[in-house]
Predict the structure.
Amino acid sequence: MLELLKFALRIWLAVLSAIARVAQQIWAAWHAVDTAAAVLAAVMILVAVLTRNTLCELGALGAILCISVASFRRERWNLLDDFAQFGRTAIDGFRNGRYGARTHSSWRQPEAQRPDAARTIRFVGQSNPGRSSRSISAVQRLSNLLRSRIIGQHEAVEAVLASLEAAAVGTRASPQSPISFLMIGPTGTGKTELAKLTAEGLKRPFYRVDMGNFKDKEGLWQLLGSPQGYIGGEGMLTQHVAQNPSSVLLFDEVEKGSPEMYDFMLPMLDEGQVKDRRTDRAINFAQTIVFFTSNLITEVPHENAGHQNALRDLVFASRFLRQEFVARIGQIVPFFSFSPDEMEKITELQLSQYLDSVCRNQGLSPQITIDRGVIDLLAGLQSPKYGARNVTDSINQHVEPSLRRALVRHGPNGMRSLKVAAENDQVVVSVD
């Protein structure tokens, strides 16, 4: 009897786990307004049960059914957009005479086409100005973020923003494929940071794939799912995009990946589709933004910036990436080595962010002062070979010890000011 109860308990727990997983997938597919509608529908059911109002109960069940069907189909169904589109359709119908009073004859003799008449293009379908407006606002917000945080890479920032603006206003030539970039140039120049900030500015999920960890087909199975008959499950990448179709994806150091990566990257860039090898389900990548990085080309001539053919020829000459792969990428984005002035700006930005983060985590809000000599000292420690990659290490080595000692001496009491100065090639931090 005890074994039977244990078996029944395991079955019940499995059912609850399945219900929770389905609910999580449905919830992740909703917009905020759809979530609010579901909560309202649940309240209506509660009211219907308490008051035995059949009309209220039927309305709630219908709303939940519609939203659930849309979610299972992985559609992001925004009720406000649907109501707006319904209103525009009705208004256009009244204007065009499709609704309202009937005329004496519903058939009209078509007018003869004059040879010199101007050609008229008729667009079929309904636009969605609300969604386009939100996309444009997101790109404008991202523009401010990138221009303030990405130093010395003006060409890269403008290239990314131009592609995102084209997608926002609907002027892309191939909307069925994802927006894609191949970022080339020396290490430590901001390629990964640009991808991360794009996800942050657009408020999209970010997913990074270090291609150096996927050098064989078994590693690739982790991304796309193991084939039928092999041990494993669904792919990490395909499962993530299925649940977050508008993600920002970063394939870091793409040249280090398995040669079999082209088997999924080519259809992803061309058709916006990738198949999960476990479930054989086609996952839609059309709404993603895809970044590839490569450190193979360490020097990009400045005169090639803005000339896509010259940049593609430069990548072809490296012979590490297949031509059909490079040809399908939306834009080649060049990055350049930093000048001394740009390195000082990057050092100042990262040091300010570090000090602000430490104070905020401690619940402090002092006035922070940084002497120019500190910036010159830290920027002078950087090697052009590694770009700005070691700025954080320099801060940890030269600023953190003095800051830590100053905070220990000051104690947990409130802090009014924090000053960072350079004395005898040493960083000195004082607090008050």
